[in-house]
Amino acid sequence: MTPASPGRPGLGAIVGRVGERQQVARALADVKADGCRMLLVSGDPGIGKTRMLAELADLAGEAGALVLTGRAAEFERDLPFGLFLDALDDELENSGKAALEQLSPQQLQMLATVFPAAAHTNAAADTVPLPMVGPLADSSVERFRVHRAVRMVLERLAGDRMLVLLLDDCHWADAASVELLDHLLRHPPRCRTLIAVGLRPRQASARLTASLYSAEATMRMELVELEPLSRAETALLLGLRVGEIEELYASSGGNPFYAQALHRVGSKDPMPLALPLDTANGVPTAVAGALRNEFVRLPAEVRQVALAAAVAGESCSLQQAIDIGGLDEQQTVRAMEELERNDLIRLRESGQFAFRHPLVRAAAYLGATEQARVQAHRRAAAAAERRGWQVVERAHHIERSAQPGDYAAIAALTEAAAQVLDRAPAIAADWAASALRLLADSEDNTHPERRLELLTHRATALFMSGQLTASRGILHQLRRELPADPPVQRVAVAVACARVERLLGLYDEAYAMMRQTLDGLQPGYPDEEASLTCEIATLCLLRSEVEQAREWAIRGLALTTGSTLAARLHAAAAAGVLACAGKTADDVEHAASVLPSVVAAIDAAADEELALRLGAITGVVRAELALERFDDAIRHSARALAIARRTGQRQLVPNLLVDKSEAHYWRGQLDDAFSCAEDAAEMAHLLGVGELQVAASTALCRAAVVRGQLDAAIEAANWSVRASRAPDPYYAREALVQGGYARIVAGQPERGVQEILAAVGEGVRHLPASYRPWLFELLAYAEVRRHRLDEAQRWADAATEAAAVCRRRGAGFAALAHAHVLLGRGESAAAATAALSAAGDFAAVQMQISVGRAQLLAGEALARAGDRDGALAALGMAKDLFARGGAQQLLAEVVDAQRRLGARMRRAGGPAHPGNAGLDSLTTREREIASLIARGYSNKQVAERIFVSPKTVESHLSRIYAKLGVTSRTALALTVGNPDDPL
C-alpha cells in the first residue's frame, strides 16, 4: 500500500485551468504582500475544487505559510465544528502546545469544548457548572467567545508566518462550523490570512452563502468558478484521443470526475439503477450508475468493509474497519486491499484510508441496504463506547441505529444535546428531536416527564440557534401539556414564551397570553402572580402604554410584600417600570424605596440561588438604571452575566449586555459601553434574533455618538430602523433619536430634529418619563444651534416639567437645557450659573460625561462673560473628563474652545510633568501602546507585538494624541518620559 499526500490522496497534475491557477496564485501573492483575502472556489460535484485547493496548498507551503486543511463530510453534518476539527486538531496536538499555553485558562476551557487537543493541556482546568434552571437554560459558554478563542489560537499558530486556511466541501459544513467561519470572515485573524473555501453553490445553505458574500466588507474576495473542461482537455485527462471520447464527453459534460468515473467502468457498459445521490447531489444518472457499478462487481465482504469505511467518516483506520464491518482482521485486510486495488480507497501518510472522492464514499454508503447501514452504525457506536469516546462523538451513530423504545439511546442523545447546546445548538435541537421520535414511536407511554424534559431541551436549542418561531411553537405545546396543578412550571414556560415573543416583536400576542395565564391562575401562588404582573407591566411599556404600565407596576409592587428573594426581585422589576412610567415624584420615590432591600438581598444570595431567579435580575438592573444607581447596575449586570453564562441562560445575556452598556454610558465609561454593545451585537448576530440585534445596534449607536464616530452612529441608527419588525419599535425609536443626535453634532441640526420628532412624535406621551428630560435638553440644544430660541425655550420648559417626576439626572438635564437657551440669548452669567448647577446634579450621580458637557457649556459662558480663569478651569475639567471617558467628539469641542480662548497649552515636545493627568487618563492598552511607540516601534511592529491590526494601533494612537495634547511621535515619546520605565 503506497501512501499519498495527507488530506488529498493520489492527486495528479491539473489539466487546463490556466486562468483559475493564475487567480489562486494572485490571491496568495496579495496576502503575502499584506492583508487578508478570501478565495471562493465554486463549482459542481467533481469539477475539481479539491484539486484546485490542493494546488493552493502546495504554493502556500512553498511560500513558508502555515497551511491548515479541513473538509466537511456529507454524513457527519451533526458533528459540531467538524470542519474545523479536521483542520486544526492534529496541528494543535502535534505542534500547537506552545500556542495553547499562551492562552488563558478560560480560553482553553472554551477551546476544550471543541478540540480534544486543547482538553489535554494541563492548563485547561475543569469547571463545576451551576445547576440548569428552567426553560431556555442549559449551556455553559457563549459561542462567540469560543469563536474569538479559535481566532486567537489561529494567530498564535501562525506567528510570523502567513496563514492559509483551506476549507473544502463547505456546503456540508455543520451549523457550528458555519457560524465559526462567519465570525472569521467578519473578524479575520490579525495576521496575513487567506481563507479558501470550496463549495457547491447550489447545495450551500442560505446562512453560508450570506456569510461568504458579505465577507467583502472585511476582506477582498476572489471568486474562482470552475467550468467544465473542453473536449481536448478531457481527452488529455483520460489519455485518449479527442475522437475517442464523443459519447463519454456528452455524458460527462466535461466534468473531470464524471469523465473518469464513466471511463473507469466503460461508458457503454449497462448501468444499474441510479443511486439516491443523483438527486441529492445533482449527479447525472449515468455517473451515479457508474459509481454504483464499481461496487456491484465486488464480493459481498468487500462491499461490507466499504460500508464500514463510509460509516467511519471522512477517513478510516484499519481497526475502525474491523470494528464496524463485523469481519475478522484477516478478512478486513483482504477487503481493504481489494478496495485499494480498484482505486476506491487510498492510503494517506497518516495510515488512515480515505475514499478517492466524497461521491465514491456516498456510493459505498447509499448503495448498501438500510438494514446494513443501521447495523454498521450500531457496531460503530458500540466500538466507540468501548474505546471511551465521549457521547457527543458517538451520537450520530446512535441516532442512525437506535430503535423506538431504546431508553439508553434516548438518554445518550439527551446528554449529547445538552453538551453541545451552547456551541452547536442546531445539532442539539436535531438530537433532541431524534430522542423525541424514539420516545414517541415506542409503545411505552409511562415516561411523560421525559417527553416534557426533551421538549424543553429542544425549545432551548431552537431558541439558541435563532429558530425563534419553532421554539415558540414548542413552548406553546409545553403550556398545553404541562399539568395545570401545580401551576409553577406552566407559568415559568408561559413567561419564557412571552420573552421569546418579545424578541419576535409580538408584543400584543405576549400580552394576551400573559393576561390569559394570570386570569387562570388560582389563588395561593404569589410568586407566580407577581412574575406575570411584572411581565405585563414590561410589555405595556414596550407597547408604549405608559399609563397602563404604571398601573401594572403599582399592582406588582403591592403583590411583592414578602421578604423572600423572589419577592424582592419581583418588586425591583415593578419598581423599574414604575420609575420609567411614573406620573409623580411620589411614584419615583416609591420605586426608589424598594431598591435598598433588593440590593441587600441580591448581595447576600449565593449564585446558585440567584440562578433560579436570574430572569428577574434584568428587572433589577433596569430599575437601577432608571433610578440613577449606575454602579449597582454595572455590578449586578456583571454578576448576572457570569451566572447566565455558567448556567446557560443565554436568552438573558444580550439584554444584560445592552443594559450594562447603558450603565457604563451614563457613568461616562464609553469604551466599556462600546465593548458591551459589541459583545451584545455579536451574540445577537449568532442568535439571528432581529429585535436583539436592533437593541445591540442601538447601544452601539448611543456610545458611538459621544465617541465621535458619527457616521457609524448614523449607519447603526438607520440599520436599526430598517431591521426592527416590532409594531411599535421601542429600541428602533431610540436608535432614531441617537441618529438624530449624531446629525445635530455633525452640523445638521434641522435634519437631526426632524428625525427625533419623527421618532417620538410631538406629544411624546408614550415616552417613559425618565427618558424625557434628556431628550428635551437635546432638542433645546439643537434649536439653539438653529437660532430658534423660542422653540428652544419651549423644550427647556418641557424639560423642567419632566424633571419634576425624575431625580438628580432629570434636574441636571433641565438646568442644562435652560443654560443652552440663556447662552443663546446672550445672558452669559446666568447661563454659566445654570450649567454649573447642572454639573452639580450630574456629579451627584457620577454621570461624568454629562458633568463634562455641563462644564464645557459653563466654560464657554464664562469666557463670554469675561471670566477667563473660570472658563479655563471649567474647560480643563471637561477636557479631563472627556479624555478619561473616551468622548473624542466632545474632547475635540473642548480643545477648540480652549484654543479660541487662547489657552496656554504645554508645547508639543516639552517635558511631561511626573504628575501629568494626561498619562493617568490613558487606558491600560493605550499606556502599553504609548510605551512601545516611545521605544521607537512602528505601528506595524506594535500591532504584531500586541496581536492587533495596524489600523487598530492607528486608532488608539489618535486617541492617545488627543488625551495628551500632542501631535507627533517625538512629542509622545517626550511626554511619556524614559521608555525603559513602565508607564
List the topology elements.
Blueprint: H1 18-33, E1 36-42, H2 49-62, E2 66-71, H3 82-95, H4 97-101, H5 105-112, H6 116-119, H7 143-158, E3 163-168, H8 175-186, E4 193-199, H9 206-213, E5 220-225, H10 231-238, H11 246-252, H12 256-265, H13 277-280, H14 285-296, H15 300-312, H16 318-325, H17 329-341, E6 345-347, E7 353-355, H18 358-366, H19 370-386, H20 391-401, H21 407-420, H22 425-441, H23 448-464, H24 468-481, H25 488-503, H26 507-519, H27 526-542, H28 546-559, H29 565-581, H30 585-604, H31 607-611, H32 614-626, H33 630-647, H34 653-667, H35 670-687, H36 690-707, H37 710-723, H38 730-745, H39 749-760, H40 772-785, H41 789-803, H42 808-824, H43 828-844, H44 848-864, H45 868-885, H46 888-901, H47 917-920, H48 924-934, H49 939-946, H50 950-964, H51 969-976
Parallel strand pairs: 1-4, 1-5, 2-3, 3-4
Antiparallel strand pairs: 6-7
Helix pairs in contact: 1-2, 5-7, 7-8, 8-9, 11-12, 12-14, 14-18, 15-16, 15-17, 15-18, 15-19, 16-17, 16-19, 19-20, 20-21, 21-22, 22-23, 23-24, 24-25, 25-26, 25-27, 26-27, 27-28, 27-29, 28-29, 29-30, 29-32, 32-33, 32-34, 33-34, 34-35, 34-36, 35-36, 36-37, 36-38, 37-38, 38-39, 39-40, 40-41, 40-42, ...
Written overview of the protein:
With 983 residues, this protein is mainly α. The protein folds into 6 domains: 18-228, P-loop containing nucleotide triphosphate hydrolases (Rossmann fold, 3-Layer(aba) Sandwich); 232-368, Winged helix-like DNA-binding domain superfamily/Winged helix DNA-binding domain (Arc Repressor Mutant, subunit A), CATH 1.10.10.10; 376-465; 649-764, Tetratricopeptide repeat domain (Serine Threonine Protein Phosphatase 5, Tetratricopeptide repeat), CATH 1.25.40.10; 768-905, Serine Threonine Protein Phosphatase 5, Tetratricopeptide repeat; 907-983, Arc Repressor Mutant, subunit A. Helices cover 67% and strands 4% of the residues. The chain contains 51 helices and 7 strands. It has a 5-stranded parallel sheet, sandwiched between helices. β6 (345-347) and β7 (353-355) form a beta hairpin. α8 (175-186) runs parallel beside α9 (206-213) and α40 packs parallel to α42. The chain is globular and about 100 Å long.
